[in-house]
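Dig into my protein:

:::
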Amino acid sequence: QVQLVESGGGLVQAGDSLRLSCAVSGGTSSRYTMGWFRQTPGKEREFVAAISRSIGRTGYGDSVKGRFTISRDNAKNTVYLQMNSLKPEDTAVYYCGADLTTSYFPTTRTYEYDYWGQGTQVTVSS
């Protein structure tokens, strides 16, 4: 059973940076496409970024391109989301997901992911 645990959320001011971590256990993260999504109350979970299995291709949602960077440390079995130039509209609960089987990339829909973490809150004040 793959388990994902997010960490690194918090309260920051607009323009600040934050790095989220997603620790993977019960499996090898480099074998999965890993994704970050975010969700605010009353809205659907929104795709933020993904990194492909093996070669580590990356993909981003339009609202975060140029500001966020997804990466992985295979030795630590951890995926990161570096968030720079944060805006109040980035405020959300951020979730990490693992896609074990999809053959195409990027995977931007929640149903393409097999496992999810519990989420970490990011709040950006203006």
Q: What stands out?
A: The longest strand covers residues 18-25. The mean pLDDT is 96. The two ends are 40 Å apart (CA to CA).
